[in-house]
Design goal:
heterodimer, A: alpha/beta, Transcription Regulator spoIIAA, six-stranded mixed β-sheet, 4 helices, globular, B: alpha+beta, Beta-Lactamase, Phosphatase 2c, domain 1, six-stranded antiparallel β-sheet, 12 helices, 27 strands, 27% strand, disordered C terminus, PPM-type_phosphatase-like_dom (chain B), protein serine/threonine phosphatase activity (chain B)
């Protein structure tokens, strides 16, 4: 578990899928933390096929938070890993819809390995 | 004096009676005061300070020595002595003299060192509390003139042919002058100003000093020393110290001390110079990045206001621009957006976006194409820093303003109708700069006279505050506020929204807030036209 004053991450991993549960705000200060965690998991588990980001307990997501999600989307796609933003709160959906990123982040095109 | 047990004591001892006559003295006292023989008046033997002390103390009969603050001190034969009295039964006084000349010298040296340390500490405090080069030069010259010399000159490296010089006389105020002189004409000054390699201070013959180096009314110069001011890898300048003929020339230790002071002054001056350079760079950047003042263009009113998130970061993530049409009768293009993040990185991206949009103006009628090209220009493999923005093309047709509005992942513009209805423009799209394939949908709208279209950034709707301090200003509250603005001029609406957001925030921190309003001006029939036929209007 990684802690931050605003964001707490719990990572549970299985053979081919990793679940990261994020509690708190994803913002200017904490966005880097989530991005690092995902990057570490991607490089540590080359056999991973699915990355689940559990968003139910996610608070405010600001523009830097969204930027981090987009980078996570880019890195998972490059690694051939499917990204799942699970249990999205309505607020996050609204942000993704407003910025036109919902489809991109929820059905990312997979580049072949 | 064999009867005296202290006859061979190493310290001088002298006994005098109540009448002020010497009674006896030991060998050491004999050496110190050769005239001291029993029976001689003390006044003929000892210096005045000791005689006066004896007269005050020597009373008939036994009594105690009154308490005094510290021992009595004075000079005998060029050396410094402490005099400790003991009173004998008959009232006569034995004076024990202790030579403390060396002690005194050490004490003076300590006192001087303390003074210098305090001076250096003060110099550091005063100099480092200012990032203003002119003030640093003033302080350097003034402090040097107070403590190191009779007059001091602080010289900054030349700008072109001109040498900035601050001159200060002891007790006077520092005076800045810019001189057109060649520093290489003064031995050591050119090297000191170049700073590389570091040169030691040097004395120069006052006779060779040029006239500009000697302040007016200073009189004949006794000695001059030139000390370089070392900076952070850059020469900070030089310090020139002058003393009058009647004062002693600079001693080695004084010159070392002047160098210690110069090191501090140089550090402060070069820090101030670097800061000044940086703030010039920021100013230049900001002049480019600050939003323009908007006005009336081709029959359409524009107004905009930008409130940055923090005063020390005047350039932030929000931006707007209005580009008048190249050809009269075509649409002007408004862009308003928000770059993710803040500070200089955001400002650089903002600059890129504004420049790219400017270059893409020839295709301003095709918003999709503009956004697509802008997106490609901004995509970077290193980061997913993005921008959301709205493009608005506005053109006056008759007394109506036709709009085309396209959102690239940005909150939709709001349209205030004449009756106070607030509509959300039906446009949506993908944010710019992070995803290779983007799409967007353009909305069309028309503004009747007195109607307005409001473009804003989420700094307004996400302003956190209100009565409880934790509520967002929100889209609904913004729409209600805009509904009250029906018929208001563009400038008034911008003012009103910024004021409401500021009140909502109170003193709480906030994100950048930008608002642009496009209005169709209320028109008046020209009196020359009869007012019934559709014809010419003034705005």
């Amino acid at each position: 578990m990684t802690t931050h004053p605003h964001l707490r991450l719990t990572t549970v991993d299985a053979q081919d899928s990793v679940r990261i549960e994020a509690h708190g705000d994803l913002d200017h200060d904490s966005a880097g933390l989530l991005l690092r965690e995902v990057t570490d998991q991607l490089s540590a588990r080359p056999a991973m096929t699915d990355l689940h980001l559990l968003c139910a307990a996610l608070g405010t997501v600001d523009s830097m938070g969204l930027s981090a999600l987009l980078m996570i989307g880019r890195r998972t796609a490059a690694a051939g890993v499917r990204l799942h933003l699970d249990d999205r709160p309505a607020k996050l959906d609204r942000l993704l819809r407003l910025t036109g990123t919902l489809d991109h982040l929820t059905a990312p095109p997979l580049t072949p390995r | 004096m064999p009867d005296l047990p202290w006859g061979r004591a190493p310290y001088p001892v002298l006994v005098a009676d109540v009448h002020g006559a010497v009674v006896r003295c030991n060998d050491a006292a004999g050496l110190l005061l050769p005239a001291a023989a029993p029976g001689t008046p003390l006044t003929d033997v000892a210096p005045d300070w000791l005689c006066a002390a004896h007269t005050a103390l020597s009373l008939p009969g036994p009594h105690a020595v009154p308490d005094t603050e510290g021992p009595l001190r004075g000079v005998i034969g060029g050396r410094c002595f402490e005099a400790h009295p003991t009173i004998r039964k008959d009232g006569s006084v034995a004076w024990w003299l202790v030579d403390d000349t060396d002690h005194q010298l050490v004490r003076e040296a300590l006192c001087m060192e303390r003074g210098r340390t305090a001076f250096l500490a003060k110099a550091s405090n005063v100099l480092l509390s200012s990032l203003n080069l002119a003030r640093c030069m003033d302080v350097t010259a003034q402090m040097a003139a107070e403590s190191l010399a009779d007059a001091a000159l602080a010289i900054a490296p030349a700008r072109g042919q001109r040498l900035p010089v601050v001159t200060c006389l002891r007790g006077g105020a520092p005076v800045l002058s810019t001189l057109t002189v060649d520093p290489d004409d003064v031995p050591g000054l050119g090297e000191a100003l170049r700073g590389f390699p570091p040169v030691p201070s040097r004395w120069i013959d006052p006779a060779t000093a040029p006239a500009w180096m000697v302040p007016e009314g200073f009189g004949p110069v006794g000695s001059i020393v030139i000390t370089p001011l070392p900076g952070h890898g850059v020469p900070a300048g030089a310090l020139i110290l002058l003393r009058r003929t009647e004062n002693a020339a600079f001693r080695d230790e004084e010159e070392v001390f002047a160098r210690l002071f110069a090191a501090r002054a140089g550090a402060a001056m070069s820090a101030a110079r670097l800061y000044a350079e940086q703030s010039t760079i920021t100013d230049v950047l900001m002049r480019e990045l600050l939003p323009p003042v908007l006005h009336h263009i081709s029959g359409v009113d524009f107004a905009g206001r930008y409130r940055p998130s923090a005063d020390h970061e005047r350039i932030g993530g929000d931006f707007y621009d209005v580009h008048p049409a190249a050809v009269e009768g075509e649409a002007s293009l408004v862009s308003l957006g928000d770059v993710c993040g803040k500070g200089l990185e955001a400002a650089v991206l903002t600059g890129k976006i504004r420049n790219t949009l400017h270059a893409l103006l020839p295709m301003a009628d095709d918003h999709q194409r503009m956004l697509g090209l802008l997106n490609t220009a901004l995509l970077s493999s290193h980061h997913t820093r993005f921008a959301t923005l709205v493009l608005a093309s506005a053109v006056r047709r008759g007394n109506v303003v036709d709009l085309k509005l396209t959102s690239g992942g940005h909150p939709s513009p709001l349209i205030i109708r004449a009756d106070g209805t607030v509509e959300e423009a039906d446009t949506h799209g993908t944010l710019i700069g992070a995803i290779p394939n983007i799409s967007s949908h353009t909305a069309s709208a028309s503004l009747a006279p007195g109607e307005s279209c409001v473009l804003y950034t989420d700094g307004i709707t996400e302003a956190k505050g209100g009565p409880m301090g934790d509520a967002l200003f929100g889209e609904e509250r913004l729409k209600r506020a805009l509904s009250d603005c029906a018929g208001m001029p563009a400038e008034g609406i911008v003012e009103h929204i910024q004021m409401l957001a500021a009140q909502w925030l109170g003193n709480r921190p906030h994100d950048d807030m930008a608002v642009v309003v496009i209005s169709a001006p209320r028109t008046h029939h020209l009196s020359a036209v009869n007012g019934h036929t559709r014809g010419r209007f003034t705005a």
